[in-house]
């Protein structure tokens, strides 16, 4: 083999080895780029998921706050309307005794109290109602005792002879019952709102 052939063979071998090295380097570079791209995609997706979660949380918080504010406004408005209605009713009821139909109203209130009483009845009324109450009891023709021992804007307290059964049916008691119904109504609104929010996931 001549020197030229030997040099040519060495040159070919060098070229082949260089090509192999280059190919391996290129493949490794591609793998590194692919890994880097995958890591970048994962980081970007994680950040996107975090941003979405924070947005959902903030939206839920804002919705809850808005619903709570709206609920409180509705309740406050209803309470104000109901209180005005009760105040108006209270004012009207305090003038009840001056109405022409008050005798029949008092009679109905006494009758309502008599439903759960048997035997002799004790009728407690305000002294201002003495005459009307006496007339009512005479018409009812019941064994009774009339006591002028309460202060009221109207109505009566009915009890049995030994005082074990006592029915309070005065104007003031009627108003108290109305206020209690109002509180129950407001509580009902709160309960319904909370149940609705729980069912709706809000």
Please describe the structure with a list of short key phrases separated by commas or semicolons.
202 residues; alpha+beta; 4-stranded mixed β-sheet; 4 helices; 72% helix
Structural topology:
Layout: H1 3-94, H2 102-114, E1 121-124, H3 130-140, E2 144-147, E3 155-160, E4 166-170, H4 171-200
Parallel strand pairs: 1-2
Antiparallel strand pairs: 1-3, 3-4
Helix pairs in contact: 1-4, 2-3
Mean pLDDT: 87
SS-based class: alpha+beta
Count of strand segments: 4
Please summarize the sheet with the most strands: 4 strands, mixed
Rg to the nearest angstrom? 45 Å
Spatial gap, N to C terminus: 91 Å
Contiguous helical run count:
4
The shape is rod-shaped
Helicity, as a percent range: over 70%
Strand content: 5-15%
Low-confidence regions: none
Q: What is the spatial order of strands in the main beta sheet?
A: 2-1-3-4
Instruction: Give the ordered list of helices and strands.
Output: HHEHEEEH
Summarize the structure.
With 202 residues, the chain is α+β, with helices and mostly antiparallel strands. Helices cover 72% and strands 9% of the residues.
